[in-house]
Every structure is written in structure tokens, then in C-alpha cells.
Amino acid sequence: MRCFLLFIHCLFTTVLLAQSPKIVQKPITWNQERIQLSLDYLKNRHGLNQSTPTIRPRMIVVHWTANNSVKATFNTFNPVKLPGRPELTKASALNVSSQFVIDRDGTIYQFLPDTIFARHTIGLNYCAIGIENIGSRQNPLTDAQLKANEELIRYLSKKYAIEYVIGHHEYQRFKKTSWWKETDPKYITGKDDPGDKFMNSLRGHLVELKLKPLP
Q1: Is residue 14 pLDDT above 70, yes or no?
Q2: How many angstroms separate the Cα of 198 from the Cα of each of 49, 57, 66, 106?
Q3: Residue ranges in the chain assigned as alpha helix (H)
């Protein structure tokens, strides 16, 4: 476990050296308990028996936070275990999180390394990088966030073979495909973030990436 924690530190350092665009490192708690809960999630929810909680990024899922600040999002994701939310704790005690968070002014924060597992999208965590955006239905995402998402996704697409960029509200479209890995077919939650308008604009600005259409 100690070696793996050192590996995490090296991943963050590599991002700092190679990053484009500017990414502010703001790591959430990553300890042996979170490692084990992540491995348990991969095994129990995704049916994947792994020795390290890593992912091979093939898609990006865009979210909104439903709160108004990076600080509030950090405080939500930082605890290792999920407080409350019985609709989620029945599946795992592991707290939700994402690899990236984008503030309303377009500032990009990284909470976890790109290839480290985060719990953010049912059925797809094992292959998906999560990007959270500070906003909600009452506070629609900004033009600065749209631009930052474009820049971040282009950067990630240079590093990994990204095939899909989807909104959280679109995740259930993968249920009948080979991408879907969830051991309980009844474990589903309704989502509406970040909405068709934002995702259509985002994908419309990323046509050069030749992303696959949603199933």
C-alpha cells in the first residue's frame, strides 16, 4: 500500500510537469482505507478484481455539483466514507468523488489523478474520468466553464483513447451496451446534469476529436 501511495504522488507530479491547460492540484484524501473501498467497489459493483484502483480512461462524464463553490465540493468529496445518502450507501460506503472540478470562472482543479478510480457515475466508473462543474439547475454553467471543459477534454484526449464525452444525465444510454458494468440492474439514480444544451454545445466544439455518437 505504501508503494501505491508513492505512485499516486508521482502521478500528481507528472501532471504538474506535463499539464496543459493550467490545472490547480487540490488532492482529496487518498489513504489505505479509500484504496480498499475503491477496490471493493470495482469488484462488487463492476465485477472487476483488481490489485490497484486504477482505470483505463475511455470516456469522460461531465457533471454539475449542485452547490456553489469548489470549497463545498472539496468538503463533500474529501471524506473517505459517504455520509448519509442511503440510496448510495446501500451499494457502497465509499464516498463519491471525481478527478476534476471546474469553478465558475473556468479554473480547473484536480482532486484525483486521471487514472485513479473515482465514484461518480453508476456502471461506468471503471473507464470514465469525471469532470464536476460548479453549478446547478438554478445556476447554469458559464461560458468560462464551457471553454475550460473543452480545453481539459482536448488535453485528456491527447493522453488517452477517449471515445465518448457524455453528460451525467446520459449515462443510462449505456445500460444495454458492453460498456455497462453494474452487478445490480436495479441500482440506478435519476440525473439531469448538466443538461442537453451544455452537452450539445460542448460536443459541438470538439468535433475534431471525432468522438463516437451516444448509443
Answers
A1: no
A2: 36, 22, 15, 15
A3: 2-18, 32-44, 70-77, 86-89, 143-159, 196-204
